[in-house]
Amino acid sequence: MQASDLRCCPPCARSSVDDEDDATAVTAVQLRAVAERLVSVGQRVPRDSDSVIVMDAGYDVTRLAWVLRDLPVELVGWSAATG
């Protein structure tokens, strides 16, 4: 893989979530929009390998993976150690 093969998108803003919103649902909508934008601008084609989305601790990666299972993405989440 070459550096030119790597594509990066700006992070989604978690600050746009209101207290009454479901943060995971809002994040899923944002990530779906990013994936759709990559296709619409020609940065992703069907023969490409899955896009890797890396997340910090605090996201429900398991639920997001389930909600986004129809997209060609792999989610990687940081797990915060407690104790």
Characterization of the model:
- The protein is α+β, with helices and mostly antiparallel strands and 83 residues long.
- It has one domain (22-83).
- 30% of the residues lie in helices and 12% in strands.
- The chain is built from 2 helices and 2 strands.
- It has a two-stranded parallel ribbon.
- α2 links the parallel β1 and β2 (73-77).
- The chain is globular.
- Residues 1-6 have low confidence and may be disordered.
Total count of strands = 2
State the domain count: 1
Rg computed from alpha carbons, rounded to a whole number of angstroms: 14 Å
Give the oligomer, counting copies of the same chain as homo and different chains as hetero.
single chain
Coarse shape: globular
Biggest sheet architecture: 2 strands, parallel
Give the helix proportion (percent range): 25-40%
**Secondary structural class:** alpha+beta
Uncertain residue ranges: 1-6
Write the layout of secondary structure elements.
Elements: H1 23-40, E1 51-55, H2 61-67, E2 73-77
Parallel strand pairs: 1-2
